[in-house]
Amino acid sequence: MKFWQAVAMGSLALAAIPALLMSQQVVSGNPNSTATVTFTLDFPQSNPQHYTIAVDGAGHAHYECTGKAAEDSDAEDYRAEFEVSPANRERIFEWAKQAQYFAGKIDSGNRKLAFTGAKILSYQDGQRSNTAPYNYSNLEPVRELTALFQNIGGTLEYGRRLAYYHRYQKLALDDELKRMETQARNNELSEIQGVAPVLQEILEDSSVINVVRARAKELIQMGSSAGSGR
Question: Is residue 135 part of a domain?
Fold first, then answer.
């Protein structure tokens, strides 16, 4: 090989390195892209008596529950799809990592503690498939995950009830939105943008009184603010 040919080939190889590194970053830039963290709660004395929230590495979430939308309604299955905020997506997968992806025992083992529902955290990706049941955990990342998922569950339950009341009992909307607003301001709810569609329907419904529509608008704005960077 002539000297000038060797130089040219070397230059081409050097030029290809940034592109190669970039392609590797595209593939590995989100290590959780194929992973899913799932939280399940079964508590017969509560409403809903069962619910599951699954969040994948892209931030897409699936919620399903079995319970009553109102005291005078029958227990039904309910499902919803939404996108979690980037901040909470990162928290969920970081806490799962800190908890060793639930590969071991996460329950405290303390049988004297009050029963607060049969909980399960699971993690699946291309390499792992772990499931861990618990009532209460001494592990901080597990407690953080539990609190976050329960706050998300509370938000989705408001969405389910609001959809029911908007259809069948519009006079109940004001009290429901008051409670939701109070909990949101006390940081007891997460991912309010997940129920934005039903809030938007209430806002746009001219048959709903203005104060209710104003509350719906305020909650939409709160959800938009939290979802954009909180």
Answer: yes
